[in-house]
Known about the structure:
With 319 residues, the protein is α/β, with parallel strands linked by helices. 33% of the residues lie in helices and 14% in strands.
Amino acid sequence: MGCVNDGTPPIEDMPEEVATEPKPARPIPKFDRDSAYAYVEQQVNFGPRVVNSDAHKQTREWLVEKLESFGAEVREQNFEAEAYDGTTLSATNIIARYAPELQDRILLTAHWDTRPFADSPLEDDENAVVNGADDGASGVGVLLEVARQLGENTPDIGVDIVLLDAEDYGQSGGGSRTSWALGAQYYAKNVPEPKPRFGILLDMVGARDAKFGVEGNSERYAPQVVRKVWRLANSMGYGDYYINERRGAIVDDHFFINSIANIPTIDIINMPGNTTGGSQFVEHWHTGDDNIDIIDKRTLRAAGQVVLATIFREAAGTL
């Protein structure tokens, strides 16, 4: 994602949500952190998933195969986009649907591509390779484990898992915000019907001791979803991860899903605050240090178990 602030201050007062009649609740599956870790590791083993590369193609085929094996109805949303440097990107959003016959749906999303170059001011090696273990693979790994669970325990609500492409080919250093999240922009203009009611984006959800602060555009566009998810996470004992502290508004995939598709979508993202170099993001962001050694299974579980609980509680009307 781009470290670009859209200049919009967070909403101060969140409106009350409308109460719904509870339904019979199904047991919430236990998120398998070892399984999620293995999915992250496999992506990293393919190598950097830069759009147009062989590793990108191999990863796409693997992701489609895994999601189909988990019982999802899978569609490849192919598109071409021009990157800020003039490169034509042949990209694919992967859309996996559970209970496709249901009108009431939730969106879960992450990006599966990686940054083509290590351009962080903290990176002093001009030949460094961004493996994207956290920035990309962690969110996808969590969603693959969620997909596996949904294949075995489908709740009474539709779920669209969308793995977005061409997120990380944007122009850094004050470039246009529309140079980022090209897959999200395409998806937002071509959302399959029925449109999900709300969404959750997972980005950089794998590092040790992650701090999921409340990101500004999440609060601006989807304050009720923020409140529900953070309250649920704290009730489940994950308050050390889901901290009730406000962070700046960033341009990530959810920004375009909110502003173009009008699907209220939050970003669960590791934003510990100002770090060395002045970034809001973690120090391994866009560096050669973003490798499998960064990933912590407990953090993956904190992200995935809360997402599973959100789905099943929302299906029961008790979120």
